[in-house]
Design a protein that fits this description.
Strand order of the largest sheet: 1-2
Helix content: 55-70%
Strand content: under 5%
Number of strands: 2
Distance between the termini: 26 Å
Order of helices and strands: EHHHHHE
Length: 132
């Protein structure tokens, strides 16, 4: 019987990456709003660009989940942190990005490698007698 072992938190990573794209989009919208404020009111601030950085870092964390599955807990916590940071700085990634980053972070934290199709393999005639 073939054994398939899933060794990476693929769904958690994909949810985090897609959430990161939405957070990046929300960050770009906030940055565009900051640019409009600069043009009209001459109000300059670098805080408008934090959402872009948070979105980019969320995408990086999702990619690292695929590359470093042994660091899944730390990366899941980072995804949760960036998801919550997206609320004030990137409008929550249009809410979808926030939800996907949080779900991806929680899935990465609780993920365990799974073995599919594992059967008990013993000698062909049944178990060996206790005397050897």
């Amino acid at each position: 019987m073939a054994v398939l072992i899933i060794r990476r938190p693929v769904i958690a990573a994909l949810a985090t990456i897609v959430g990161g794209f939405f957070i990046l989009l929300g960050g770009l919208l906030v940055a565009a709003f900051g640019f409009v404020l600069f043009i009209w009111l001459h109000f300059a601030s670098n805080w408008f660009y934090v959402g872009v950085v948070v979105g980019f870092l969320t995408i990086v964390v999702g990619g690292l989940m695929l590359l470093l599955p042994s660091a899944k807990t730390v990366l899941g916590i980072a995804a949760l942190l960036f998801g919550f940071l997206s609320i004030p700085f990137a409008v929550g990634g249009l809410v979808v990005g926030f939800l996907l980053a949080v779900v991806g972070g929680v899935m990465a934290i609780v993920w365990r490698p799974v073995a599919i199709g594992v059967g008990v393999v013993g000698p062909p005639g049944g178990p060996a007698p206790p005397w050897g």
